[in-house]
Write a structure and sequence with these properties.
The complex is a heterodimer of chains A (268) and B (538). Chain A is mostly helical and 268 residues long. Helices cover 71% and strands 0% of the residues of chain A. Chain A starts with a helix and ends in a 6-residue tail after the last helix. Helices cover 27% and strands 20% of the residues of chain B. Chain B is built from 16 helices and 21 strands. The chains are: A mainly alpha (268), B alpha+beta (538). At the A-B interface, α11 of A face α8, α10, α12 and β15 of B.
């Protein structure tokens, strides 16, 4: 647990202060590229070598953390927001509301995620951190919404909610004070895990040429560029791939840890 | 902006069609021959982009196949001089009326002699608009084309009035505008000028399934787009005998699969993208062929855009691009940094005419840009996504950004070719955009006319540039007394165009091929391998 947390902490620091960490070896500008060094191996000041464009791989990978992690958190936040709203609505609302929300969820669940993302991103034109996060968020909420609904249902008939009702409290207050805090836990855990999934999805889309595009600096772009010359210069691919894997691994590990911490059956 | 002849398709998933048995191409009686008879040669397997049609006048993507089944009237010798193949001579005194004399003894694969009438009938059919043959434009300068294919309205004639059959082996061609380069138009790339036998026009669909040409190879299997097409050397071919007995054209949707198959020795010849050169040098150290091609890569501008209308801005951008370094890093050194508007392999190409403006000089570039008032805002470099050009445009953008000190230079991919052309045609571009012209015949005329005149097919690549003085100079060069004089004329044309600097020349092309161990040598005609000159390893 502490390993995962510290790895994630370091990566978050990368994302927050890229200039400092990128400059650790003396060449912190990810956009200072010299084709004369194209795809060269490690050199003094450039511990991980250069990519095809002659840019420093370390600096680029550090800066890449920013967009990947931003997309991860932003998209998950969007998805979580939608999921909480619709899940609560469906869990507390009447039959009709519940039925409608459920069907909408099913429709979104039925969409092939990648296909939907491809279509939308291709039509949007502009592809930056915001649009990619938006698309990933908008198509990533259904599972969370279902979990939220189930969770809300399980608390809606509990004594403290009934008590609050009997006291004549207004619905918004009941939701805020009594329902959400007690129902949100499992959804939070799922959201943590889904951060990792979103980061992978972003890289996948970017690799396919429909996610982020230059001049954004992202691991997906670096992996795509590295894979094109993998056979002649394999080192270009290594660092961004390792960073991506570490991020996803640590986020998922933390999520798992949270899950088992909150799971009464595993509590001792 | 024509697709390069070997542009690699971007699709995924190959239909590697069930392998046909590599039937020996010897005739049956050879099997009974004595054991001393040399074993039948295995056909050479040539990976091609999935062919669309096999009618030479009506295809986009079948160059390699139709160039094997047919033979052109004119070819170029190794020095780039005109020599004749199916024609004995192509002559004119005034560059307007050309007399084409065919060689005697040429036959179609069905045994019929090739006559002047066959040429004239085929050209007439191609030029008649209702037949909708896509390569009809290759006949556009012949008198009467305006009547058979008017820009607007119905055609008023069925045949080209400029074509006259003199006798079985002679016909004359009258041109709208004088053109000293006309014999070069009759070379291998202008496939609409190949002759079809008269029986073809009875049923073109059936003809396409079993095509009959006059070329070095004849089809020995029926053709369907997804299946390999087998050809064998035509025994009565009147041109120089091909060095191999048989070629099988294997269609691929995805050339990366063909590349792997070549590594495994499953196919023998595969065209690859320039960006794969580096890797191919490792994978095929002795079997990578870089063939001089008549194509050029350049950057176009919307010259109406006030940010780019100052010639100094365009010149500064050109000088800020290190073509050598990009060529080495991205293309493995396989392309040729441009110093003129045409490919260096073009006869008479005025190498170096672009001068200092095509040479990398970051200080001078920066100074020139400052003199022009600098550049404000974002510069987007538009190209086509998924054509394997991401690295190229990334590199160009990096150089412009670093060397000119412009903050935001963004390589911007358009989703596909259609989206790209839409954006360019409507002028909806925020900077230089990708442009290229692959000439169909090795004459500067083709590139200059297509790109830098208003009527040219590739004019949008130059941002719609046109200039009456350029038009006049081209017409003058076309009408020159001799081929040499016309080269001087085209040099003047290039000089005049470069005074306006509407485009940034980037690279002269080489088309790249990798081959299996079986192949020991490839020669080229206009960037494509000469299929009659394939050398087999002994």
């Amino acid at each position: 647990m502490w390993i995962a947390t510290s790895v994630l902490a370091v990566l978050l620091l990368f994302a927050l202060f890229p200039a400092f960490f990128a400059g650790l070896f003396g060449n912190g500008d990810p956009r200072a590229c010299d084709l004369a060094h194209s795809a060269e191996g490690p050199a003094p000041g450039h511990p991980f070598g250069y990519d095809l464009q002659g840019c420093d791989i370390w600096a680029n990978s550090v800066y890449g953390a920013q967009s990947s992690i931003t997309v991860g958190f932003l998209a998950t936040a969007i998805a979580l927001g939608i999921a909480l709203t619709l899940g609560t609505l469906s869990g507390l609302g009447g039959r009709v509301v519940d039925w409608i929300v459920q069907r909408v969820t099913e429709v979104f669940l039925g969409f092939p995620f990648l296909l939907a993302a491809i279509v939308v991103l291709n039509t949007l034109g502009a592809r930056n951190v915001w649009t990619v996060s938006l698309v990933l968020g908008v198509f990533g909420w259904p599972t969370m919404a279902r979990l939220m609904r189930a969770s809300v249902r399980s608390v809606r008939h509990s004594e403290y909610v009934l008590a609050a009702r009997t006291m004549g409290l207004r619905l918004p207050r009941i939701i805020k004070r009594y329902v959400l805090p007690n129902a949100i836990q499992p959804v939070f855990v799922l959201a943590t895990i889904s951060i990792g999934m979103v980061i992978v999805a972003e890289s996948t889309l970017t690799y396919l040429g429909i996610g982020l595009s230059s001049p954004a600096i992202s691991w997906g772009l670096q992996i795509a560029a590295g894979s094109r010359i993998f056979q002649t210069a394999p080192h270009v691919l290594v660092l961004p791939s390792v960073m991506l894997a570490l991020t996803v691994l640590s986020v998922v590990a933390i999520g798992e840890e949270l899950r088992s911490a909150f799971d009464p059956r595993e509590r001792r | 902006m024509r697709k390069p002849r070997n542009r690699l398709g971007a699709g995924l998933g190959a239909v590697v069609v069930g392998v046909i048995a590599l039937a020996g191409c010897s005739s049956a009686d050879e099997e009974e021959a004595t054991p001393t008879t040399e074993a039948a040669q295995e056909p050479v397997r040539f990976a091609v982009e999935t062919p669309d049609h096999l009618i030479p006048g009506n295809h986009f993507a079948s160059y390699n196949i139709v160039e094997a089944l047919w033979a052109p009237l004119v070819q170029l010798d190794e020095n780039g001089d005109v020599s004749f193949l199916a024609a004995e001579s192509v002559e004119s005194d005034d560059a307007v009326t050309w007399t084409v004399t065919l060689r005697d003894g040429w036959t179609f694969h069905n045994g019929d002699p090739v006559t002047a009438q066959d040429y004239v009938d085929t050209w007439n059919y191609a030029a008649y608009a209702p037949n909708a043959w896509v390569n009809a434009g290759q006949l556009a300068n012949i008198v009467g084309y305006d009547e058979t294919s008017p820009l607007e309205g119905e055609p008023t004639a069925e045949t080209l009035s400029g074509l006259t059959v003199v006798d079985d082996l002679t016909f004359t061609v009258e041109l709208e505008n004088p053109d000293r380069q006309y014999p070069l138009q009759l070379t291998i790339g202008q496939t609409a000028l190949y002759p079809l036998p008269s029986e073809a026009f009875d049923d073109l669909e059936a003809f396409e399934a079993d095509p009959i040409g006059n070329g070095p190879f004849k089809a020995s299997s029926s053709w369907t787009p997804d299946a390999p097409l087998e050809t064998v050397a035509y025994e009565d071919y009147a041109g120089p005998e091909p060095t191999v007995d048989a070629i099988t054209f294997v269609p691929y949707i995805d050339t990366t699969v063909a590349y792997t198959d070549a590594l495994a020795g499953e196919v023998d010849i595969v065209g690859i993208a320039a960006a794969q050169a580096q890797q191919a040098r490792t994978d095929f150290p002795d079997h990578l062929y870089e063939l001089d091609a008549p194509g050029v890569d350049f950057l176009g501008f919307n010259i109406e855009d006030p940010r780019f209308s100052d010639i100094r801005v365009r010149q500064a951008i050109s000088m800020a691009i290190d073509r050598e370094a990009i060529n080495d890093a991205v293309f493995g050194g396989s392309q040729i940094p441009a110093t003129s508007l045409t490919s260096p392999s073009m006869p008479g190409d005025p190498a170096g005419i672009c001068g200092e403006y095509c040479e990398f000089d970051p200080e001078a570039a920066k100074a020139l840009l400052d003199e022009a008032g600098g550049f404000e805002g974002t510069m987007e470099i538009l190209f086509v996504a998924n054509w394997g050009q991401e690295d190229l445009f990334e590199a160009i953008a990096n150089q412009i950004r670093q060397n000119l000190g412009i903050e935001d230079v963004v390589p911007t991919p358009a989703a596909d070719w259609a989206a790209f052309t839409d954006q360019v045609m409507s002028g909806d571009v925020n900077g230089p955009f990708r442009a290229r012209w692959g000439a169909l015949y090795p004459s500067q005329q083709n590139t200059l006319q297509a790109v830098y005149t208003a009527e040219g097919e590739g004019n949008f690549g130059a941002g719609g540039y046109s200039e009456p003085e350029v038009d006049a100079l081209i017409a003058e060069a076309n009408a020159a007394e001799t081929a040499e004089a016309s080269y001087e004329g085209y040099t003047a044309v290039q000089e005049r165009i470069l005074e306006d600097f509407p485009t940034i020349p980037l690279f002269g092309n080489r088309y790249l091929y990798v081959t299996s161990e079986r192949i020991a040598g490839l020669h080229t005609v206009s960037g494509a391998p000469d299929l009659t000159q394939i050398q087999l390893a002994s």
